[in-house]
Amino acid sequence: xxxxxxxxxxxxxxxxxxxxxxxxxxxxxxxxxxxxxxxxxxxxxxxxxxxxxxxxxxxxxxxxxxxxxxxxxxxxxxxxxxxxxxxxxxxxxxxxxxxxxxxxxxxxxxxxxxxxxxxxxxxxxxxxxxxxxxxxxxxxxxxxxxxxxxxxxxxxxxxxxxxxxxxxxxxxxxxxxxxxxxxxxxxxxxxxxxxxxxxxxxxxxxxxxxxxxxxxxxxxxxxxxxxxxxxxxxxxxxxxxxxxxxxxxxxxxxxxxxxxxxxxxxxxxxxxxxxxxxxxxxxxxxxxxxxxxxxxxxxxxxxxxxxxxxxxxxxxxxxxxxxxxxxxxxxxxxxxxxxxxxxxxxxxxxxxxxxxxxxxxxxxxxxxxxxxxxxxxxxxxxxxxxxxxxxxxxxxxxxxxxxxxxxxxxxxxxxxxxxxxxxxxxxxxxxxxxxxxxxxxxxxxxxxxxxxxxxxxxxxxxxxxxxxxxxxxxxxxxxxxxxxxxxxxxxxxxxxxxxxxxxxxxxxxxxxxxxxxxxxxxxxxxxxxxxxxxxxxxxxxxx
Length: 543
Description:
Elements: E1 4-10, H1 18-34, E2 39-41, H2 59-73, E3 80-89, E4 91-100, E5 103-109, H3 121-124, E6 132-136, E7 139-145, H4 147-150, H5 152-160, E8 165-170, H6 178-193, E9 196-201, E10 203-206, E11 209-212, E12 216-218, E13 224-227, E14 234-241, E15 246-250, H7 260-278, E16 284-287, H8 292-305, E17 310-314, H9 322-335, E18 338-341, H10 345-359, H11 366-387, E19 390-391, H12 397-402, H13 423-439, H14 448-452, H15 472-483, H16 489-493, H17 499-511, H18 513-517
Parallel strand pairs: 1-2, 2-3, 7-8, 8-9, 16-17, 16-19, 17-18
Antiparallel strand pairs: 1-14, 3-4, 4-5, 6-7, 9-12, 10-11, 12-13, 14-15
């Protein structure tokens, strides 16, 4: 029996770009046909992009997807193509159409609709009722969509219908635990059904999620036959042997084992690049404080966009140390970005003078500290307006969790690359980035003295973060249990953390939901991100 030749399109298909996505499929069809493929496979909701959210409530959007699908079907001479689209027939289904011989031959509807984490499928779609199996080149191929393979029954139904190979199209967002979980699920499905699995995943950043690709081939006995590189746009060639129920990758780039920091760094870079480019910004700017968060954000931005598209701004006051000034300037010069120093002390003093009558009789406190941050926010937003560059917010997940951030100050910005990155991970990423540079014989991207110094907001004399917060090792361990683990305060304290510290941290997390609701979007990279994934009430008596 002849092998079935597959071309798996691990590419980015942006949300809402229906005509452009269809044109990309058309180009991939030509390439797949020229390479001798029998079937081109495209990701989940290829034409609409994923997740299209409330675009799915617009009849004109659904009609545009349907029109482009019909046009693509007419171009399938000599090739079959599996293309994802929202299928509207009174109800709307998350669908994948098998196009062949100039027509839509079969349509598979997603059966298992996820409604957890970042997923809202049940808001928009109705579930499919059966697993579709089609014959291609004499091979019985089951057509599944994303969550269908995470549940046993859709794959089992396809196997009962005679499937030898399962082709699974996905828009599965990345997080720091996802790839190992995916592989375990696919191995289990293959062993249960005896079917080989070709798993194709979307790649690219979309608002608060980032897709890694990381497509996989799994043989019928559960052996992982091939892994595609993460965060790479590729047309992946594969061959299925129905007699052995095995898949063979053809000239796949090596997916070398990488340190967790390397993959996380790549996810953040991809998130920045796609958010900036898809939204049409000519570049970005950020406040460079001389601290580790802004230093890492600058390195990420340069790696994502190139130095010519990045502007850094240092805004000192009387409390800004020489270490901060020297570290910021040195990093900006080393990375080759446009750099400005704007002394905000006069502006800060004018604010204080204007407020003096209303502040009379009250001792200086956090209001004056936050006023410095808000002065910087106003300056940065003015620069963003004037030059059209997107302002990056530089705060991390630890700060956002406990509210150690100033509304309309350091929280200003249109995108927050580190929003889902704990402070301890910020340090690991900074050290990894410098080690990667050293391995290439390059200078460190982040000044080592910035990494080693005690973290400080520098809003008063001799201030450090630990004046207000527990040590970050302890804080992040508590936060991970409280946020990702959803553990109670008593459960966290039972692990050996001081009960009063746990109560204080939990109280800060719950009390600062109002700040997080006003924060910029940022890429989800953990299993429980603030934003669309973790939605707590602002007004709540639960403590």
